[in-house]
Automatic annotation (TrEMBL):
Localization terms from the record: Vacuole
InterPro entries according to UniProt: 6-blade_b-propeller_TolB-like, Strictosidine_synth_cons-reg
Protein known as: PROTEIN STRICTOSIDINE SYNTHASE-LIKE 5-LIKE
TM segment ranges: none
Statement: the UniProt record of this protein carries the keyword Protein biosynthesis: no
UniProt family annotation: Belongs to the strictosidine synthase family.
Pfam families: SSL_N (PF20067), Str_synth (PF03088)
Tagged with keyword Phosphoprotein: yes
Superkingdom of this protein's organism: Eukaryota
Length: 360
């Protein structure tokens, strides 16, 4: 019996192919545009507005020190391991051999250092009930504390806490807008109990140190990668000038070592991503929204300490790609001690065994 064979059918018509191509195009377009549209919508709804920085002041390449140790972690030791939560700043009392450090859990702790870190003694001294940050030793065995939530505090040798000031010119101390040009450099007179504003409109005003001759103070502007000096005595009293700019990272605290050098903590090096974020407020807004609604961004690395002389000229640089958020650095004997917002200890490095080497 003969059968009729079925004609072969075409796999697809031209119209069908066209429709599939169109759908593929729109799918790709939607995939690309959806995140952009969502990000734009969220940015419009979120009230956070980042500052616009004077980019023309950030055009020069980062400075380099004459000597550098870029493997600071090699040979470093943890002081007070797991006993110090985010030890942001360090102050050293040479008479007692004790380090005071400000921790994220509200404690100002006393650390007795020895030749071996295993013999370190950590004491929970005073809890401010806030977040202690910058520290300085007073003339009468007291510790002066800049607390993010409480204000300027004084802790007596007996551990009694006194609020010295929490406002200036009717404006409360506030870290919320520190990155905008609302930062201020302040001075407190313990005799008159007055707080004065030395400088306005600073970008992320941060660490401050008094010069050895008491003629001026040096303070850091983190996002501008610079330190400036304000004269408090002499013919230049009341004037403001640049101490050092174009730092190779973001400065945090600054300390004088008593021997003609300032130790400037650099919380992060300048990366391409960080440079773009500083130049483009929209990117910083996206970063802020991500942190607010999703989680913390990856912490930038290659943190360390930048050392300059009294004229602001770089001498040495200690850093490491494995270090992050170093917030303070001081030299005690043969060692550099570094505080951090991140680590549960103080980083210690013997600079006689692991010195900075000439870079040229």
């Amino acid at each position: 019996m003969a059968t009729k064979s079925k004609p072969a059918s075409s796999s697809s018509s031209p119209n069908s192919t066209s429709r599939k191509t169109s759908w593929s195009f729109f799918t790709v377009l939607l995939t690309v545009l959806s995140p952009v549209l969502v990000a734009t919508l969220v940015c419009q709804l979120d009230s956070f507005e980042p500052a616009h920085f004077p980019i023309h002041e950030l055009t020069q390449p980062p400075l380099k020190a004459l000597k550098k140790n870029d493997h600071m972690l090699q040979g470093s030791e943890p002081v007070g391991f797991k006993q110090l939560i985010g030890p942001e700043d360090i102050a050293y009392d040479s008479n007692s051999g004790v380090i005071y450090t400000s921790c994220a859990d509200g404690w100002v702790k006393r650390v007795t250092i020895n030749d071996s870190v295993s013999d370190t003694i950590v004491e929970n001294w005073v809890n401010t009930g806030g977040r202690p940050l910058g520290l300085a030793l007073g003339h009468d065995n007291e510790v002066i504390v800049a607390d993010a939530y409480k204000g300027l505090l004084k802790i007596s040798g007996e551990g009694e806490v006194e609020l010295l000031a929490d406002e200036a010119e009717g404006v409360k101390f506030n870290l919320t807008d520190a990155g905008k040009p609302y930062g201020r450099a302040l001075s407190y007179d313990p005799v008159t109990k007055e707080t004065k504003v030395l400088a306005h409109d600073l970008y992320f005003a941060n660490g401050i140190a008094v010069s050895p001759d008491q003629q001026y103070v040096v303070f850091c502007e983190t996002t501008m990668r610079r330190c400036r000096k304000y004269y408090i005595q002499g013919k230049k009293k009341g004037s403001l000038e640049t101490f050092i700019d174009n730092l190779p990272g973001l400065p945090d605290n600054i300390h004088h070592d008593g021997h003609g050098h300032y130790y400037i903590a650099l919380s992060s090096e300048m990366t391409v991503a960080l440079d773009l974020a500083i130049r483009h407020p929209f990117l910083r807004k996206l970063m802020g929204i991500y942190t607010k609604y999703v989680g913390e961004l990856q912490v930038s690395k290659n943190s360390g300490v930048f050392i300059v002389d009294l004229e602001g000229k770089p001498t040495e640089h200690y850093c490491d790609l494995g270090l992050a958020l170093i917030s303070s650095g001081i030299k005690i004997g043969n060692h550099i001690y570094c505080g951090s917002l991140l680590y549960p200890y103080i980083v210690r490095l013997d600079v006689t065994e692991h010195p900075a080497r000439a870079t040229v």
